[in-house]
Amino acid sequence: MSAPAAAVRRIITATTRLATVPYVPEIRLQQADDPFTVWEQTEQAAGQATLPPPFWAFPWAGGQALARYLLDEPGRVAGQRVLDIASGSGLVAIAASRAGARTVVAADVDELAVRAISVNAAANGVRVQPLLADLLDEEAADADVVLCADAFYEQELATRALAFLQRARQGGAAVLVGDPGRAFLRTAGLTPLASYEIPVTIALEGMTAKQATVYELTG
User: Fold this and answer.
1) Which DSSP letter does residue 77 get?
2) How confident is the model at residue 5 (pLDDT cuts 50, 70, 90)?
3) Helices (H), 76-173
4) Which pTM does this prediction carry?
5) How far apart are CA 95 and CA 9, in angstroms?
6) Backbone phi and psi for residue 15, each to the nearest 5 degrees, phi listed first
7) How many distinct helices (H) and strands (E) make up the chain?
8) Are the beta carbons of 42 and 8 closer than 8 angstroms?
9) What is the DSSP letter of 49?
10) Is domain 59-217 given the CATH code 1.10.565.10 in the classification?
């Protein structure tokens, strides 16, 4: 979509509500109650029938776990240049900023997600640089820490994301991953750091809670 930024922001705030994140109550996000309703509403508001799924409208379990970990262990990102890939709502990026990161770039391929990141960062009073870009075939540039949550739900994306993360690790960045046991996450080389029982919605996950783990890529 190519609507003006103000119009996109109005779409986001009109189809979601600002609410606290269940497992990370320090952070508030624009959230939808139902995935199919918000998808239909955003398509109607944007005048398009082919928008990507509104992943940005929900705090997914892996992101909640990684955000919780960063707020509890701020030393992992404090003073560091942070890159959050497949950022979605910006939850993890916002947590990194709150934990004291020097700079935070939040990248996503969905224009609505990038605008939602901006709206959510402002609602939490933090600085995050949203970036509309597919970085997965590139390098992690100057990032000291690379974050990735909930990106392993389909095989092609998981393969590309893991390759990017491995290149980032080889380039000297610390790499942290949040995931609730998605089918396409290969855990070889990933060291578990923490595990949480995350509240989720039945509409999204078919259950009310999921076990989500934070890993560090070490091998």
Assistant:
1) T
2) low
3) 91-98, 111-123, 155-170
4) 0.91
5) 21
6) -105, 0
7) 7, 9
8) no
9) S
10) no
